[in-house]
Amino acid sequence: MSTSIDEIIRNLESIHNTLDTFEFREIQHNATPTELVALNEAFFGFFFLLDSSVSAQGLGSGLDSKEQSAWNLSRKQMADQQRVIETFLSTNGTSTLNAPGIAALAWEGEKVIIVRDCHISVIHSLQFSGASPHWVVPPLSDRWGITFPITPDELDDVLAEHQDSKGVVVTSPSYFGLTSDIEGLSSVCRKWKVPLYVDSAWGPQYFATSSLGFPPAPQSQGADVTTSSVHKMATCLSQGALLNFMNQKLVNRFSELFRIFVSSSPSYPIAISVEHAINELAERGTELWTGAVEITKWLRDQIRKIDGFDVLDNEIVDGIRVKHLDPVRLAIRVTRRGITGFEAARILKEQADIDVELATRDLLLFLFAPPDSKQDAEYLLSALKKLPYSTPLGKSRLTATFPEDRPLTPRQVLSLRKRRRVPLSRASGKICAEVLASYPPGIPCCVPGERLTEELLTYLEHIFQDGAHITRTFPEDNGQFTSVVVLDE
Ligand SMILES: Cc1ncc(COP(=O)(O)O)c(C=O)c1O
Fold first, then answer.
1. Distance 95 CA to ligand 1 centre (A)
2. I need a surface site. Which of 191, 195, 201, 479 has the fewest CB within 10 A?
């Protein structure tokens, strides 16, 4: 797309008329600083032009039941393109879809099986619905310091023991790009007559790119519901996301619950950008992603040759536990070079102005996308080569076991309002009132209603000292990790 301001302005009218959209990212990426000032004016002008009111006839919204509204026609088109029976559009991310989506499987007093390496919005869903989670802790890889998926056989055992459960929730791909055997998991779910909900927030492009070695879309592998944070991996404004259904029975329940979360004043710029991104993927997904896949492959091969780095690659795909590895997610273990991932990320930022997607104690994670070029990859490679080199570090502290005593559900904690902050030294044995999550291992280490253990608190303290960021519900701890909010019993 051209970056000429005149062209942008000339395009605005036709864009507005056709409700087609515009590649914001490419414009911003390609602009020079002087262009940016003018771009700001064009950009905001453009935004306001698109940002129509819900009162404009025919546009519709997420609360709208008129089949012929632009909103609903757009949903229908995107469902067809992704080959699902229905799709719901969120202008507030997958987070707002997970809450009613998982609640559509199980409500208050009902049981839902959840693999523990889930996003925080899955826990928020439990707080909303009152459903009782049965957590399945996925295996932790000692070598990589990350979680691996569960196998169909493991799920079969869990469902045999919990035949009263109303559904299963798994996250696939994981943050590091590992996907579960969705076909196998869904056939186990069919055997036990429960729906499979796949939080595939990081794979919005999969429906259009499997010929490039991306994993197949989970909706094509038997999943009943799948998420898609379109904004994460496609040309779409932040917060544009979809929830896809292959199971008509869940659609009505979901629509009823989703209405609670939907604004009556939708953001049309976000909605249009989702439609644009899905269109673009459907029409030229392979062409769009070929370069990013090739660049990542090239970089993987180069990094493998450098002493001190280990690259997560297809060797971990065993077809049973790990079904695929997303080809544009590049995880590098740096500890044999004598530094932690946190230190490496800081050095890359300070010395080369490189932002990593994620750093853990052991790893650096990079994501590649269509705008990235071979020059970008070469620049990264040369910065990685300059990282310091000293005595290799030992294994990471990946020894956390999660609390097994769960006197209350997350929702029960929410309704008991008395909380107090206690120092870590006095927190063991208390019922946690907040979510404590970190990378590694990418799992909510403690959720509201679980009894804190000495072992978990020590683990969290250690990884915090190693440089891990701990996401929590009540962060006011002066940036430190010295206390935790518990239920005042
Ligand atoms: C697995 C997973 N699900 C859901 C979400 C939430 O997505 P969003 O940022 O679109 O709200 C994330 C965000 O990173 C995620 O990693």
1. 6
2. 479
Question: Domains in the chain and their CATH numbers?
Answer: 5-50 (no CATH), 70-280 (3.40.640.10), 286-385 (3.90.1150.10), 410-487 (3.90.100.10)
pTM of the shown model: 0.90
Could you read off the pLDDT of 103-140 as tens digits, one per residue? 999 999 999 999 999 999 999 999 999 999 999 999 98
Question: What's the 96 CA to ligand 1 centre distance in angstroms?
Answer: 10
306-310, 435-439, 446-450: the lowest-pLDDT one:
435-439
pLDDT at residue 486 above 90?
Answer: yes
Q: How far does the centroid of ligand 1 lie from the alpha carbon of residue 44, in Å?
A: 27
Give yes or no for residue 472 CB within 6 A of ligand 1.
no
3 state SS for 32-53: CHHHHHHHHHHHHHHHHHHCCC
95 close to ligand 1 (CB < 6 Angstrom): yes
Residue 483 has pLDDT above 90, yes or no: yes
